[in-house]
Amino acid sequence: MSSQSPSKRSLSRGKPVTGRVGIFWWWEGRLLAVATSISEGETASGVVDSKLAHAQTWRLLQDRHPELRALEYDTVPRGRVLHVRRNRVFRVLMDKRLFQPRTMTAIRRRFRLPKGKTTFETDPHYTTDPDELNRLFEEGCESGSPNARRRRDPEPDRA
Asked: Which of 32, 16, 8 is nearest to 110 (CA)?
């Protein structure tokens, strides 16, 4: 029997998984992140996600960093780190503005993400580009998409 606790093991193979899941923002050249262990996350369809929501966590960050109080959570480039249990990889979903070596290295370090087992992906949900937001909002209204209409509303789930 393994001496490792279940919180340190992947449920799929019993080998340690050191990466973490969570949410983050990139503001003024630094990473503001909240990372949790995989065992503390929620699993849906084989994907482990943090229980944290950007909107609620932003309020806590604003208390610690008064300079953030004038900003809305969705105006600062942000993202989310997920763990896919089946193939033991991490997916980083983020604003396309964050695809810079320095930013990606900071995210990889903070979340303890293994090289070769981590993908960085854009996700329109995390965009801060005004033109892209307007386009998504207009397309959503035309198609009746409820997600597009919620873009400035408080997060109903986790964003």
From this structure: 32
Strand partners, 82: 91
Q: Where are the domains of the chain?
A: 18-149
Contact 151, 74 (CB under 8 A): yes
The pLDDT score that the predictor gives to residue 47 is 97
Contacts of 49 (CB under 8 A, 6+ apart): 21, 41, 42, 43, 80, 82, 158
Q: What is the pLDDT of residues 40-55, one digit of tens each?
A: 999 999 999 999 999 9
Tell me the whole-structure pTM to 2 decimals: 0.76
Q: Which amino acid is at 109?
A: R
